[in-house]
Amino acid sequence: MLVSYKWLQEYVDLSGISPEELAEKITKSGIEVEGVEKKSEGLKGVVIGHVLEKEKHPEADKLNKCLVDLGQENPVQIICGAPNVDKGQKVAVATVGAVLPGNFKIKKAKLRGEESNGMICSLQELGIEPKVVAKDYSSGIFVFPSDVEVGQDALAVLGLDDAILELGLTPNRADAMSMLGVAYEVAAILGREVKWPEIKGDEGKEAASDYISVSVEAKEENPLYVAKVVKDIKIGPSPLWMQTLLMNSGIRPHNNVVDITNYVLLEYGQPLHAFDYDQLGSKQIVVRMASEGEKITTLDDEERTLNSGNLVITNGTEPVALAGVMGGANSEVGAETTTVLLESAYFTGGSIRRTSKEQGLRSEASSRYEKGVDPNRVRQAAERAADLLARYAGGTVLKGSVEADTLKAEPAVVSITLQKINSVLGTELVMDTVKDIFNRLQFETAVEGDEIIVTVPTRRGDITIEADLIEEVARLYGYDHLPKTLPVAEALPGGLNDYQLKRRKTRAFLEGAGLYQAITYSLTSEEKASQFALEQGEAVRLAMPMSEERSTLRLSILPQLLEALKYNLARQNDSLALYETGSVFLKTDENELPREKEHLAGAVTGLWHSQLWQGEKKYVDFYTAKGILEGLFEVLGISESVVYKAAEEDGLHPGRTAAVYLNDEKIGFVGQVHPKVQKEMDLKETYVFELSLEALLAAETTPIAYQTIPRYPSVTRDIALVVDKRVTAGELYSVIEAAGGKLLKEVSVFDLYEGDRMEDGKKSIAFSLKYFNPERTLTDEEVSKAHGKVLKAVEENTGAALRS
Would residue 681 be called left, alpha or beta, if left means φ above 0 and alpha means ψ between -120 and 50 degrees? Predict the structure, then answer.
């Protein structure tokens, strides 16, 4: 909600309170003021000018030489390129030395040989957003009414000397979606009175009931409908002050009739609609639910297909408006309109919300109806708008209103005790203080003993229970004034549990290894949701997604990490290492929440490290990603329980991928993104991993065992084994480790050969074996015996032979 400081002063006395001070007071009372914008801040030197003469520039077809009176001794020449500039106009002129938005300074200039002493400005050039500029002036300069005074400050005339407070309203504070609603709030904060706008209420002799009848079939959705008729309307621009207030509130001016309905909407918070009476096609208004498949073309020139859940205003036959959302094009007020039918109604929020959502159409009216309007302002707003139409559109208001009324709008009555207020707030407030707060809010109160009976006006539909009254007392008394106390309870030592400690250790290791933490969306597209999933299953789709790109809960973290890589690579960040810990979501039974599991994923691409002064560059490869995991498993104390096995995973390179097993249970994978996927996503060679973090951190860790430095030497034996290509180094490693007995302390791979000297289908893998006895020096016989068992075991279990 945008609130004009100058406009607010019409309803409540703000003397002695600056816009910034007011913003702070409103924020402290519970409604956040997100910003205060001073429209003319930094601007100067813009005045009203009168174009005395206009002629074509001799050297440029699209430029005009204008002689402009600025209220000084001599008129000045200004070169102007606006297509609508003309003799006799009153315009905004930035004089020499003026400063415009963006710190743009106006200087004397020569344009195609002709001197220009200033600039004739459009509203956009003065900092007004294009979307709120009237269409007549959207592509040219703004022309002021003829009665403005030449030489006066144009910024003040345009309302740009105002301050605009942007309120961040919560859904329950629908009352503050109007100037009068904000005025009540400010008056309560400052302890001042609210001044209501004056309504003269002059009416003609003819009765409105002779022109229109109203019937409501959908009484539950529309319990109150008020219609007024205004004749002899003269369509034209609204007063400049009204246009500037609308623009400052984010609404584009149209004409006097439409602008008045929008003005009253902002003033009272009550949506209105004006029909061209002569275009209605009948003398009746019938409010009903739409027929299935019924069509209407709305004011935005969109044909819309309706259903039986949409409330419509009809002329008895066809729809002329989507109730509470938008009017129909077939009854739009235009330049030829002379008689207006004015609608003011109370529609239930659920009905309007449903129609607005189904039709994908939100408006200033629907946003207010959805949150709830004050039923007791429906008639007041209609009277106010009719009065303004008589004043500024030359209309004659016909006698009376035509209504369909089944609405029971009774104020809520809520009782509370002083003891209850004090016990909740921890205060020692006296009765007079609490009564004063309710009086400032203009809530009627009665005291019976210790009980306060509060009658809440219908404008505050958010107050229905005791807790609401306590909140009102707290915020008007001042949150800063509430006593500060510590909770009284038995003190317990705080700390992280085992899982949290391990997760923190995991993140610390990965960041220490050079990876950056990423936080990506849990929502993705249906297509990407199942990519790289550890557990296959049906993805969970949102019932009401914001977009198809964010419609489904993810089954894997990797697709979003790869999107992050793609985004960075497109911006020349070509060496990246990212990780993320986050949840994936598995579908369960139809009526149950999805099962949430925490995963760890990582992605690396580009250079892993570079020592340019040594001419050394190392790009990431499979062993980079695997090495990161091995280091992590070592830190977590589970490296001895982890095994890697060659695997094929969707989306990954079949020859450079391994499944990760923990205690014989698969917990994830590590590998290269398939070249086809890399090409589709514009990625370079990229390696990834994804693991079940829950399984990883739940595993039993190997306790740290300290050993003395050995006093006796170890014995190393190297073997090169010729095996079938299908035999993996991991299989050989497991066999060697099992057969080596207690003397074998270390096994490591140091060579792989697949060349011309090797027969087809074979490869050579070389291992280094270290034997050691901590209690004495080993003999050759002991080493040979243990080594012989190893060679026999690999031959029997894998068919390996020693390479000659």
Answer: alpha
